[in-house]
Amino acid sequence: MHTPPIVDVIIPAYNEEKSIPKVIGDVPSLVRNIVIANNNSTDNTGIVAEAAGAKVVFEPQKGYGKACLTAMDWIKNQQVQPDIVVFLDGDYSDYPEDLLDLIQPILDGRSDMVIGSRALGEREAGSMTLPQVFGNWLATTMMKYMQGAKFSDLGPFRAIVWSKLLELNMIDQNFGWTIEMQIKAHKAGLRYTEVPVNYRKRIGVSKVSGTVKGVFGAGYKIIYTIFRYW
């Protein structure tokens, strides 16, 4: 791995014009590219992200996973490929400065993938809804007993060795993205660990936990994905 490592960040974003400059501003300076996947936003997300110094790719088809895949395609086209890719959300619920702790197990040669666990860190009151907390518990418990995978969270804030990520052949285009990565990493024998990350109330309304449709849609897709790769 390069010294220093080449680290790129992927941030899927849908209508996050108020939060995205804060997220970009808090990303540690060692990061080479901050790639914002503008997921058909109807506000100025793309404009403010570009003004804040990020690379912006546009993905018209709605879906968390679809946005991530589009950002990955942009990275694949770069002349020099990264060593590590970090995913985080664009709503300022994650603490981007925790990225340094997140990539450390990879830099130490101990892990190929690191999940930022909100379950192990400090959560601001109200930052996760009851359905979110229960859904994470249910999903990680099912993964443990059905696949033997040991995780405490499906947290979006995560780091993975770029070459290993490409080998996982990620395909999910929406809510199943995070759990697909974790299940595939476990089944592929990747070394993985978790580090505690802090979590705060997001800026704006959640596209998942903020609506009944979003909660049930995400819950269904997560459970479906667990059984799909069983």
Q: Count up the helices.
A: 8
User: What percentage of the residues does DSSP assign to strands (E)?
Assistant: 15-25%
Total number of strands: 7
Tell me the domain tally.
1
- According to CATH, the homologous superfamily is Spore Coat Polysaccharide Biosynthesis Protein SpsA, Chain A
Topology, pairings included?
Elements: E1 7-13, H1 20-26, E2 31-38, H2 45-51, E3 55-58, H3 64-76, E4 84-87, H4 99-107, E5 113-117, H5 130-147, E6 158-161, H6 162-167, H7 177-187, E7 192-196, H8 212-228
Helix pairs in contact: 5-8
Please summarize what this structure is.
InterPro entries: Glyco_trans_2-like, Glycosyltransferase_2, Nucleotide-diphossugar_trans. The protein has helices at 20-26, 45-51, 64-76, 99-107, 130-147, 162-167, 177-187, 212-228; strands at residues 7-13, 31-38, 55-58, 84-87, 113-117, 158-161, 192-196.
